[in-house]
Amino acid sequence: MSDAETILEFIRDDLLEEEVEIDADTSLFRDQLLDSMNLTNLIMFLEETFSIRIGAIDIAFENLDTVNHMIAFIAKKRAADA
What we know:
- This protein is mostly helical and 82 residues long.
- The chain has one domain (3-81): ACP-like (Non-ribosomal Peptide Synthetase Peptidyl Carrier Protein, Chain A, Orthogonal Bundle).
- It is 57% helix and 0% strand.
- It has 4 helices and no strands.
- The two termini are 24 Å apart.
């Protein structure tokens, strides 16, 4: 399973309250599919699953609004830690 599929599965199974079709380009926060409580759970999931640390400065639409943004953000965090 790819990283994107792993994140999508978590969002579908654990965060979305209803059956909604989403893909890696779906805007999760701008389209109000996720709220601030979901954000906390998403951050904890990303930190644990991808062994990264997400600071307050990292919490921004450009990093977390779509799965593709998350994948790029994770790659950037990993490169910075290398």
